[in-house]
Structures are given as structure tokens and as C-alpha cells.
Amino acid sequence: MDSGRQILVCQYTNCLANGSAAVLSTFQSAAVPGVMVIGCGCQGQCNLGPTVRVLPDDTWYCRVKPEDVRTIVDQHLKQAKPVTALLHPRFHPQY
Ligand code: FES
């Protein structure tokens, strides 16, 4: 498992209006060892929120729902395979 990762979950207005508080709490509940979950300010992608970034690999996810968190945890954080269906098209246009 990778260590030293951070999950940034936007907690600013537009993302909050689309349910990002529940996304944050679901990541916190997952409690993946070595992964720090952080509620952050606007990431500038408000129209495709809730916005979630994974650092240090700088993977961007968009329109994340609480039910997507388990998939991101299992595939990305535990198996190092980004969840292509949720990747933000601006940052990951190849998908
Ligand atoms: S409000 Fe979340 S990216 Fe701007």
C-alpha cells in the first residue's frame, strides 16, 4: 500500500452544495493507513464538484459521490489504479 498520501476534499460552497461534506466524512470513515484526509478550500473546479484530489500523484476526481469513495479507496489507494470513470477530464484528458 502506498503511504504518505493525502486526499483533498473540497469543502467550499459549490462542492458543499453537491454533497462534499458527506464525501469527506466517508473518506474519513474509511481510515486508510498512511492516507491523510483533508477538507480543503476551493480547487477552482466548482462546476464539476465535488472535487477530490489525491496527492502526491495529483490525480483529480470530479462529481464524487459518497458511494464512489469505496471504489476510490479500493482501486486507487489500495491497488494504485486510478478510477478512470471518475477522473476529471480537464486534468486527465486521455480518459
Ligand atoms: S467549490 Fe469545490 S472546486 Fe470550487
Considering the chains and any ligands shown, give keywords for the structure:
95 residues; alpha+beta; Glutaredoxin; four-stranded mixed β-sheet; 3 helices; 4 strands; 20% strand; binds FE2/S2 (inorganic) cluster
Using the coordinates above, name the CATH class.
Alpha Beta
How much of the sequence is in beta strands? 15-25%
SSE pattern = EHHEEEH
Q: How many domains, as an integer?
A: 1
Radius of gyration: 12 Å
CATH superfamily: Glutaredoxin
Describe this structure in words.
The protein has 3 helices and 4 strands. The chain is an alpha+beta fold and 95 residues long. It has a single domain, classed as 3-Layer(aba) Sandwich (Glutaredoxin), CATH 3.40.30. It has a 4-stranded mixed beta sheet, covered by helices on one side. A hairpin with a 3-residue loop joins strand 3 and strand 4. The chain is globular, with a radius of gyration of 12 Å. The protein binds FE2/S2 (inorganic) cluster.
